Amino acid sequence: MNIITNESYRYGYLSLWIVFISYYGDVFDKLKELPTFLLTFLGGVGGSIAYWSAYKLGALTIAHDSETFFLIFVFVLWGIFFPLSMWIFYEDKYWDFILD
Predict the structure, then answer these.
(1) Which pTM does this prediction carry?
(2) How far are the Cα atoms of 67, 71, 88 from residue 32, in angstroms, in the given order?
(3) What is the 3-state secondary structure (H, E, C) of the chain?
(4) Of these four, 29, 42, 84, 94, which has the most CB atoms within 10 Å of its CB?
(5) From the CB of residue 39, how many other CB atoms can be counted at a distance below 10 Å?
(6) Summary mean pLDDT of the chain
(7) Rounded CA separation 53/30 (Å)
């Protein structure tokens, strides 16, 4: 498929995930009461905007003919990931399993 070139993604950007997870509870406490379809939409739009911004700023290189496919792919994946991660994060059994 060769949508993203390997040389374009710098490993320093992986540290952003650590920051993202560290503030997850603080930032998303207000969003946990929203319906799932709205969380899906917010995740899809937010993820697409984040990756598109990275592309425009030169942090990510996407093959020119794959831009639309890439954005749809990111929208779908973040639309699934965001509500699922909210559900896992706020599920009490999750923390008991990790901490025990």
Answers:
(1) 0.71
(2) 31, 25, 11
(3) CCCECHHHCCHHHHHHHHHHHHCHHHHHCCCCCCCHHHHHHHHHHHHHHHHHHHHHCCCCCECHHHHHHHHHHHHHHHHHHHHHHHHHHHCHHHHHHHHC
(4) 42
(5) 20
(6) 81
(7) 25
